[in-house]
Amino acid sequence: MTSSTAHRGDQGHTAYIHSQTAHAPSNAQKNSDITKTEIESKLTGVITSHTHSEYMKVTVNGTEPTSPVAGEFWYLVV
Question: Residue 75 is inside which H or E element, if any?
């Protein structure tokens, strides 16, 4: 630290006092208390900010075979 990068004494003290004070209401919900259900309930509608159109589309059972063998997975790449 140099004299050009150091805080004046009163500014450093003010910053420290501010950092120690409570900033949220006492009844505020903590991030660690947020549940998956609460998050998913807020996620509604279509997200249009980005797409994945550069990836291939996979259609499951697009054209099923006449008699697939049990346990086989059939797909059609479009």
Answer: strand 75-77
